Structures are given as structure tokens and as C-alpha cells.
Amino acid sequence: MLGKSIVLGQFIPIESPIHSLDPRVKIILAGVLIFILFIVQDWFSFLFLGIFIFGLTLTAHIPTGYLLKSLKPILFLLVFTLVLQIFFTPGEVIWEYGILRISREGFVRGLFIIVRLCLLILATSLLTLTTTPVELTDGLEYLMNPFKRWGFPAHELAMMMTIAIRFIPTLLEEADRIMKAQEARGANFETGSIIQRAKNLIPLLVPLFINSFKRADDLAIAMESRCYRGGIGRTRLRVLQLKQSDYRFLFLSLAFITFVTFSSFFLW
Amino acid sequence: MIEFEQVSYWYSDVESLLEIKDEVLNSVSVVIQKGEFVVLLGRNGSGKSTLAKHCNGLLIPKRGKVTIDGLNTMQAENLWEIRQKVGLVFQNPDNQIIATTVEEDVAFGPENLGLPMEEIRRRLEEALSIVDMQDFRRKEPHLLSGGQKQRVAIAGVLAMHPEYLVLDEATSMLDPEGRGEIISLVSRLKGSITVFHITHYIEEAVNADRVMVMDEGRMVAQGTPREIFNLRDQIVTWGLELPQVTETAWLLREKYPHLFPTLPVSETELVDALCLSS
Ligand SMILES: Nc1ncnc2c1ncn2[C@@H]1O[C@H](COP(=O)(O)OP(=O)(O)O)[C@@H](O)[C@H]1O
Ligand SMILES: [Mg+2]
Predict the structure, then answer these.
(1) ipTM
(2) Under an 8 A CB cutoff, do B111 and A233 touch?
């Protein structure tokens, strides 16, 4: 069954210093890393940030191979980006065949961009591999809370995320069931041209879509009858509390990242 | 006490602006006393779910009134208190679990009530142990069986400390094993909380203090399980089926009229009656 094998998020349930960090610390750090990865412009920073991410992976007891697997879904994007950069960046030509020509600048830029993309994905995967969906939404809600003052729907967003995460496996299970039922009646989802296959998906998607409305309706009724009335006056089973170790980790990491960034600007 | 006084309800059709007055509930009067175990029977489409949704103000009567311990569901300011008093468990286990783990879901109601963390935790433990799901607290809902999901849903309601538990066909989407789990849970709850169990499986009415039957939006019969099971011909016209035990007894009685002075409703009663007579 498709749904049963799905784990919510990609969380690996083991114990490590990284797993036990407050989710807010991990979210902030991931955010800072993403930001920095976008602004740094040299290989030196990439090297150090890469080492940093690798170090965190070791501390989190996550097998490196497992982390690298998270790159698989974007493999196509990586190759595509590289090809695009290599062939279409003008500059000093290092290889030529017919109308195809590779420039040195294109080659370097292509590599640079895919390293950046890889590091971005690895940093975010590290977050989702070490943080449960519950912690993740809790952390986000806490972080968004200050913006409520200006009407930002922090609680509602967190609730939507929770429900989305909760229903992904359910919908996959249902898709699986509908697909089997249609296949039993001769539908074919695996062969044929892309257009044909897309067409064949319609009898799968329509019932799935309609059922989702029914589910949403039921869920709203269930929530209402359990006294849900939005975030006002609501308390939590789990209250997030920053520990000493959280502060220490956040401080050290930020110090390291700042150091790398600044030194790269001076060297650059 | 849950009290329905001459309650009528019809769904308004949004598309044709006319209100088609196809009454889904037709002047229903019902009283459920505290501590009772009441079973409501009725075929598909007879209006059971509509009735259930009136019990905690999810639907408001178009005519007549519903009161819970004197609180009228018509008044919006009562709804909060009414929904704490009356817990509803629905048919589809997949569509009423909100959170991504069992314990988060059971805590959902108490969180909405704004209880302090220690109290939420206490109620969580209590509810999980009542439905015997302590070992599953960290599990994700989609990894549970139907019966387990429904037990989580019941725990989520019990954690709000309701006085009335309304189960709207909570067993109808479960396999026999899951149904058995819920039935035995309900019989354990019996006595400690008022249970209003809605179903179309007539066997589930055997242990009820009182059985009610609905058909086409009307309350058509009320009585003890034995009284209801005696109405063999009517049961068929209401679109229900007699429990196998009772059906067997009826068939035997047709041949041997002296066999059962009182109609057996459970397997033990049937066996006892047969042994005594031989
Ligand atoms: N949301 C709705 N809108 C319109 N009609 C409805 C709605 N819900 C139920 N009905 C109709 O009301 C009748 C009773 O439904 P319901 O109370 O769900 O019965 P039961 O639970 O006994 O199967 C059915 O004829 C059904 O089609
Ligand atoms: Mg129903």
C-alpha cells in the first residue's frame, strides 16, 4: 500500500543532540543558512558551509548516504541547470562541436549553481530529517506569533500545515485504492504517450478531488464539535522552552556562519 | 438530560432558491436521561445523522427546540458549553482525526478548552488508558487500524470530560474486528457516561437500556430491546434486520409455540431457553 509506507515528513526517529534541539533553533538556523547560501559568491564559503552541514549530519547520527538521497528528486533540475549554463553562457570557448560550444565561464557558473542548490537542499533536509512534523509546525507557529499583532494568521497557517501533513498519506492511500479499482476495469496508468497518460489520470483525480471536499467538510464539523474556535484562548499540550544547550548551539552556529561570510567578503 | 421537543429540520437547497421543505426530521420528540445507554436504529437516510448533529448545536432546529441540561442550542452563547457536555464521534475515522500523532489529536479538545498543560496531560493519559491506546501515543494516525482510529476519536472526545457521548454510526465503516473493539469499549463506558449510540446494526442494541427506531425522519418506536425485537414485521418495514439470534428464536417459535415464553435477545438467553425446555 502506497499510504502505509509513507512516513509523515522524512523524520528519522533516533536520538541525537541535533534531534533534541528546540525546533525554533533549527528552523532559524536553516533559514539563515539558506539566506547565506544565496548571498555568498565564492567557493571558499561553499567549502566551509559544506563542512558545517556535514558536521551537523554526523552530530545528528544521520548516515551521509541517506542525506544525499534527498538530492535525488532534484537530479533532473541539477542536470538541466548545468547544461543550460554550460552551453549558453558566452565567454572563452574551451570545447566546440558544430553549433555546441562550452565556455569556461559557463562551466564554472554551472558548477557553482548546482553546488549552491545541493547545499540548499541538504540544509533543509537536515531540518526535516531531525524534526518531527509536530515540532516543525509548533516551531513555526511560535516563530510567527509575534507577527499576529499585525493580523498575520500564525495559528491558522500552522493548523493548515498540520492538517495538510495529516492528510497526505490518507489521500495517497485513497489514490492508490481508486487507481486499483480503475485498473481492475481496464484503465492503464503506466503506458501510452504522456498526453494519453495524463488523460488517463482524469478518472483518478476527479473522485479524489470530490472526496477531498467531503473530507474537508467532515473535518470542519469534527473540529467544531470539539470546541475549536481558532487560536484564541487555546493552550498547548507541548510548550516550547529554550534550553541552555539551544542557546549555546544557536550562538556557536551563527558565529561560525558569520565568520565564514565575513571572511569570504574580505578575501573576495 | 438531552431533550428534543417537536424538532423539525430540513436542508435548504442552495441552488433552487426555494426552500424545499423535505423534512429530514419530522416533529421528533426524544428525551435522553443522564446515565442511560440509548441505541437509535434506523436505515440509511432515515435522518439519524441529522438528529445527532442537533445534539450539540451543529444543526439548529427549524421548528421546535433542543435543550441540553436546560441549555437551548438555539442560543449561540450556549454552544461552547453544550459542546463540552456533548461529545460527538462520527462515522468516518479518517475524517475526524486532526493532528499528526495520536497524543496530539487526543489533546486537541482540551487545548481548545484552554486548559493548563498539566491538566491536558492528565486528561490525555486518562483518555488513552480508557480506550487502551497508551502504547500508540506517538503513532501517526494513518498507521492505525480502523478500530484503533475510532478509539482515538473516542479518546479525543472523552478527554473533554463530556457528560454525553453520541456515537453516530461509529462502527459502520469498520471491519468486524474493529466493530468488536468499539462495542466492547462502549459497554465498558456504559454507566460512567451517558451513551447515545446510533447504528443500523440491530445487534448493537441488545445491551441498551432503551432502543429507539427512526424511519423517514420520524421516531417510529421506543422501548426495551426485547420490546423492539418483538416487532418482527415492523422491523422489516423499517428496513432493518432482526439479530440472528432473535430471528432463529422467531423461526423456532413458529414451529414450537411453547418454546419461548419471552423472546430471547442474546445468545446466552437463547441457549438457556433451549436447554431449559429440553
Ligand atoms: N448536507 C445535506 N444537504 C442536503 N441533504 C442532506 C444533507 N445531509 C443529509 N441530507 C439528506 O437528509 C436525509 C437524512 O440524512 P442523514 O441524517 O444523513 O441520515 P442517516 O444518518 O440516517 O443515514 C437524507 O435523505 C440525506 O440525503
Ligand atoms: Mg448517518
Answers:
(1) 0.90
(2) no
Summarised one tens digit per residue, pLDDT across range A140-152 is 999 999 999 999 9
Q: What is the chain A residue with the closest CA to B100? A: A166
Cβ–Cβ below 8 Å for B104 and A224:
no
- Counting one residue from chain A and one from chain B, the pairs whose CB atoms sit within 8 A come to 101
Domain segments of chain B as ranges: 2-231, 243-278
Cell of B226: 426485547
Question: CATH classification of B2-231 is 3.10.310.10, yes or no?
Answer: no
Q: Which of B13, B21, B24, B240 to mutate to test the pocket of ligand 1 (most atoms within 8 A of CB)?
A: B24
pLDDT of residue A4: 47
Write the pLDDT tens digit of every residue in B77-135: 999 999 999 999 999 999 999 999 999 999 999 999 999 999 999 999 999 999 999 99
Output the CA B90–ligand 2 centroid distance in Å. Answer: 9
Listed by number, the residues of chain B in 163-202 with a beta carbon closer than 8 Å to a beta carbon of chain A are: none
Nearest CA to ligand 1 atom 9: B50
Residue-wise pLDDT tens digits, A111-154: 999 999 999 999 999 999 999 888 999 999 999 999 999 999 99
Q: Determine which helix (DSSP H) or strand (DSSP E) holds B67, and give its type and residue range.
A: strand B63-68
Domain ranges within chain A, ordered by starting residue: 3-131+241-266
